[in-house]
């Protein structure tokens, strides 16, 4: 299901307050079949800048419109909607398949995997469409992989903007990892006086 912006965005959670852009771990964003290495990072930007272009965009290799984009977050997020602004003249993506919390997957994997959700996309050159998620399935998202199988007939797929709306947890992912590490018992913390010259044995 898509949402058009013919309403007051402040009342419909469309404002930048709901953008998850600042929670994307941009340095770790990657894409398979991108014609220019690293160009996938350029399509993630603030909501207000979604139609601004410096000439950079994500494009598949000539003659092969399929793209696979991996997006990690700095904290777990809940995703309410996804927005895609594609390219002109049939180069916008026509379909989106999404996988959650699956790292390192490639084109052969996604062909056999069940997507969490799929959408038939429209050509959204003006950035007025958003695609609503099945929200209960998009909780605790640490990373998301976006599979664009085809374009609207173009020899390539072009993407100018990808945006996510939702909420982020307050706890950063690296902080969670530190907490897990700290609560694991450290044997050196349980050494007793026998090992330090005090006459007692190690506690089992």
**Counted beta strands:** 9
How many angstroms does the end-to-end distance come to?
58 Å
Number of separate helices: 2
Helicity, in percent? Answer: under 10%
Overall SS class: mainly beta
Strand content: 25-35%
Name the shape in a single word. Answer: globular
What value does the average pLDDT take?
A: 85
The H-and-E topology, N to C, reads as EEEEEHEEEEH
Poorly predicted tracts of residues: 5-13, 191-204
Cα gyration radius (Å):
22 Å
Largest sheet: 9 strands, antiparallel
Short summary:
About 10% of the residues lie in helices and about 30% in strands. The chain is globular.
Describe this structure in words.
- It is globular and about 50 Å long.
- The chain has two helices and nine strands, in the order E-E-E-E-E-H-E-E-E-E-H.
- It has helices spanning 107-112, 173-183, and strands spanning 2-4, 30-32, 58-59, 67-86, 95-100, 117-120, 129-132, 141-148, 158-172.
- It starts with a strand and ends in a 21-residue tail after the last helix.
Provide tags for this entry.
single chain; 204 residues; mainly beta; 9-stranded antiparallel β-sheet; 2 helices; 9 strands; 8% helix; 32% strand; PITH_dom; PITH_dom_sf; PITH domain-containing protein 1; PITH1-like
SSE layout and pairings?
Blueprint: E1 2-4, E2 30-32, E3 58-59, E4 67-86, E5 95-100, H1 107-112, E6 117-120, E7 129-132, E8 141-148, E9 158-172, H2 173-183
Antiparallel strand pairs: 1-7, 2-4, 3-9, 4-7, 4-8, 4-9, 5-6, 5-8
């Amino acid at each position: 299901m898509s949402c058009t912006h013919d309403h007051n965005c402040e009342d419909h959670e469309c404002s930048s307050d709901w953008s998850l852009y600042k929670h994307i771990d941009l340095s770790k964003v990657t894409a398979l079949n991108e014609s220019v290495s690293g160009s996938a990072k350029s399509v993630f930007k603030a909501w207000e800048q979604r139609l601004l272009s410096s000439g950079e965009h994500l494009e598949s290799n000539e003659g092969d419109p399929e793209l696979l984009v991996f997006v990690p977050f700095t904290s777990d997020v809940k995703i309410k909607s996804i927005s895609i602004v594609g390219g002109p003249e049939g180069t916008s993506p026509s379909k989106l398949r999404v996988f959650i919390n699956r790292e390192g997957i490639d084109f052969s994997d996604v062909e056999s995997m069940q997507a969490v959700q799929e959408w038939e996309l429209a050509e959204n050159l003006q950035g007025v469409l958003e695609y609503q998620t099945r929200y209960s399935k998009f909780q605790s998202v640490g990373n998301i992989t976006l599979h664009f199988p085809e374009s609207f007939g173009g020899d390539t797929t072009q993407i100018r903007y990808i945006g996510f709306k939702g909420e982020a947890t307050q706890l950063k992912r690296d902080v969670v990892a530190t907490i897990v590490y700290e609560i694991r018992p450290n044997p050196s913390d349980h050494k007793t006086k026998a090992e330090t010259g005090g006459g007692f044995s190690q506690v089992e």
